[in-house]
Amino acid sequence: MLITHNFDLNWSISFYSANYNLSGYQLVSPILGLTAYNAGKKTSNNPNSSYPLEVGIRSDQGSPITINFTVAAIRDDHVDPLCASFGRDGKTVSLKPPISPYLCGSTSNGHFGLVVKLPPAPPAPPPYAAEDGGGGGEGGRVVMWKVAVGSSVGSALAIVLLGLLLVAMFAKVKKKARMVEMERRAYEEEALQVSMVGHVRAPVAVGTRTAPIIEHHFVHYKPK
């Protein structure tokens, strides 16, 4: 009894890429498998057994077992995929060229797929170096110029804000001192005024009554 397997591409990637060593390669097809069983026939070693036993399939190099990925694989005319044979131990992977595009061959049953080699990762960009006599890249000079202008503008704004803050603090202190002086003067001059009495300065009370005036005219009273 022959049983074929056709795993979904997403499931194949999540399971086989996680368990098998596919470093530097990527699956572009679902995993296709072929297994054979003896259909549960009793054997001489265990005559009471009725469970199917897996058996191996072998073929010669002249007529290998072919696995066709023409429909199942992700096609890319610019990349030549390789045939991957996944071992039964769950770790080893064997790679070899296909018989023809998207057609793999094997001399035994198992699980197979197509993989492509991943392109090398691009090198990290070098850090921007300070401009020297040899001259750096145009991008580096532009970045350095922008940094210099930004630093100058930021410093100028900081100086202006600091100056405004100092002016505001000075004006506040001066206004407070003026108010204290005005209150002191008002308190000292509120009740008494200072005048010269001879050669001495002495406080003098402010007059609050009308000074009396002597009358020089009178009217004779004649009794009736």
UniProtKB/TrEMBL annotation:
Name of the protein in question: Uncharacterized protein
Keywords, alphabetical: Membrane, Transmembrane, Transmembrane helix
Lineage: Eukaryota, Viridiplantae, Streptophyta, Embryophyta, Tracheophyta
Source species of the chain: Linum tenue
Transmembrane stretches, start-end: 153-171
GO terms for cellular component: membrane
